[in-house]
Design goal:
about 45% helix; globular; binds zinc ion; nine-stranded parallel β-sheet; two-stranded antiparallel ribbon
Length: about 350
């Protein structure tokens, strides 16, 4: 009898584990694809991938969309908000300005000033059109933050070495209006005004920045839900814990995740540990930190292959990062990106094994 009970218990326990795993979101980021779509979906299903984060151009492919539906794979369109090189090319005056009075630009990372009403409205209209025309299951808001090339910010950096933005005349005007703080009239140069704000009113400046970002997320989510009430909203978060670099997630990036979580279904910190010189256990520590701040559904994104760093991301390290990414309170994992995962049979096997 005891043996029988044990078998039953064992079975039901196994089923419960399976169900728990089935509830996990297992996503891939994919920007374009030249191969066969039926094979792509078959490949995803065989690995246990159940969600796709795609570019607008891929989502606009009819065959891709109908196969996603048929295979029961929800799709989120990745929409960059304040990173927009194309628009900045046309309108350089939209550029965000650093505390040194320079354009917010480092390598490919170029940011738009986040307070321009016309630009914000244009982005909201763009998202509304995507929802209307392509009917995605979700919108995944990317670059919805202030300028920083975090992919190259290593553990030894300090808060003061990171660029604070945006100090163009428009933001300075809006900040003074919102907070009633008056920048002394004798300060003419942007870098002096920025220094005065940072030295005297960093807290107000930071809170206002976080509000600029959160209000944009709120507007985008509300407008998308007006068109499609059950649409899911995800935000890509800079992978900094609350106290990393002296609170830079709020002070520099303007991402107050507690505030942001109120408007979104998911938060996905980009836990690309190898790139920022952290170990795999750091992935879980970021998830825990974001969860403690938000009590939301946290889905870390992890990197499949090395990037920016000239050292291989080994299979064993990828496996470790995947284990860390799936530890509760994580609600899943998103692989950045499909292109690199597809090319690595060993890493695909590791994914399959971890999700079994
Ligand atoms: Zn600005």
């Amino acid at each position: 009898m005891a043996f029988f009970v044990f078998i039953l218990f064992g079975l039901s326990q196994g089923k419960a584990d399976e169900a728990a795993k089935n509830n996990l979101m297992v996503g891939v980021k994919i920007y374009d694809y030249a191969g066969s779509f039926p094979n792509l979906f078959e490949g995803w299903r065989s690995l246990g991938i159940n969600t796709a984060f795609v570019s607008a151009s891929l989502e606009s492919n009819q065959e891709f969309r109908s196969l996603a539906k048929k295979n029961n794979i929800p799709t989120f369109i990745i929409v960059p908000i304040f990173y927009n090189a194309e628009e900045l090319e046309k309108r350089p005056d939209l550029s965000a300005i650093t505390n040194e009075g320079k354009k917010a630009s480092e390598d490919w990372v170029k940011f738009v000033c986040p307070t321009r009403e016309d630009y914000r409205n244009q982005r909201i209209e763009y998202v509304k059109n995507l929802v209307r025309e392509l009917n995605p299951d979700g919108i995944s808001l990317d670059f919805i933050r202030y300028f920083v090339f975090w992919e190259m910010v290593y553990p030894d950096r300090t808060l003061n070495s990171l660029p604070n933005t945006c100090f163009d005349s428009h933001c300075l005007e809006e900040f003074q209006k919102a907070t009633k703080i008056k920048i002394p009239q004798e300060l003419f140069v942007t870098s002096e005004k920025a220094k005065w704000i940072i030295d005297n009113h960093l807290q107000e400046w930071t809170e206002w920045k976080c509000q600029v970002i959160a209000s944009m997320i709120k507007a985008l989510a509300e407008e998308a839900r007006k068109i499609k009430p059950d649409i899911k909203i995800n935000v890509h978060a800079v992978p900094w814990r609350r106290d990393d670099f002296g609170g830079a997630i709020k002070i520099i990036a303007g991402q107050d995740l507690a505030q942001i979580a109120a408007y979104t279904d998911y938060i996905s910190p980009m836990c690309y540990h190898h790139m920022v010189l952290r170990d795999p256990a750091w992935v879980h520590s970021v998830v825990e930190d974001v969860y403690n701040l938000t009590h939301g559904q946290i889905i870390p994104s992890i990197q499949v292959k090395e990037a920016y760093i000239d050292k291989e991301l080994k299979l064993s390290e990828f496996k470790d990062a995947l284990v860390e990414a799936l530890k509760p309170p994580s609600k899943g994992v998103i692989f950045w990106n499909w292109d690199t995962l597809e090319k690595s049979p060993e890493k695909k096997e590791a994914v399959k094994a971890a999700l079994k």
